[in-house]
Amino acid sequence: FLQRGKAFATRFLGGRLASYCVERCYAVTCDCAEIAWRYYGVQKRKVVTMHLGVDTDYFFPVRSAEAQEEREALRKELGYTSEEIVCVYSGKMTEEKNALILAQAVNRIRKMGIPYSAVFIGNGVQKERIGAMAHCKVLDFMHYSKLGAYYRGSEIGVWPTNESSSMLDAAACGIPLI
Fold first, then answer.
1. What is the pLDDT of residues 30-79, one digit of tens each?
2. Which listed site, 15, 65, 124, 151, has its alpha carbon 20 to 30 Å from 142?
3. Beta partners for 89?
4. Residue 27's beta-bridge partner residues?
């Protein structure tokens, strides 16, 4: 009873008061919308579901000769051969997101003679350990407008433990996700 009372006082009442001052509350899924009105007190009529989108000016599959040339040039710049299967990860390299597990998997697969490599884009506490592993390149955090080329230059997008909005962008570039 005390926990429910505390949740009501700290979440529901605050959310209800805030909802009187806003025109809309945007939720990215139907579940999020329900949580907003059921648990956070947002007036149900003000909750609108608006799914996350992708900027197709930056995130698109390889469908033209120009895009194919860009892909090949980037792979050459990064030192990848056409035979290599390149995995890409973008985002924070934290213990919670655990990008290190991808680096470890790439090295295990590589020991079996399968030409896997990985490129990691971002920063975080795991960055140095990932960068020290063979067949793993680490690039600094970059503006989202540059990420599409790296997704198109890869065969697989991998986010080991947590979902990321980057997954939508990678999928829009036509690569499968793990």
1. 999 999 999 999 999 999 999 888 999 999 999 999 999 999 999 999 99
2. 65
3. 120
4. 49
Q: Are 54 and 168 in contact (CB under 8 A)?
A: yes
Q: Please, are residues 142 and 129 in contact by the beta-carbon 8 Å criterion?
A: no
Scanning 60-119, the segments in alpha helix (DSSP H) are: 65-78, 100-111
12 DSSP assignment: I
Query: CB–CB of 128/160 below 8 Å?
Result: no
> b/e per residue, 116-149, with b = 16+ CB within 10 A?
bbbbbbbebebbeebeebebbbbbeeeeeeebbb
Locate tokens 């960068």: which residue?
131
Residue-wise pLDDT tens digits, 1-32: 888 888 888 889 988 999 999 999 999 889 99
Q: Which residues pair with 86 in a beta bridge?
A: 117
For strands 85-90 and 47-49, give the pairing: unpaired
Task: Pick left, alpha or beta for residue 164 (phi over 0 → left; psi -120 to 50 → alpha; otherwise beta).
Answer: beta
> Which region, left, alpha or beta, applies to residue 13 given φ > 0 means left and ψ of -120 to 50 means alpha?
alpha
- How many whole angstroms separate alpha carbon 173 and alpha carbon 167? 10
C-beta separation of 91 from 159 below 8 A:
yes
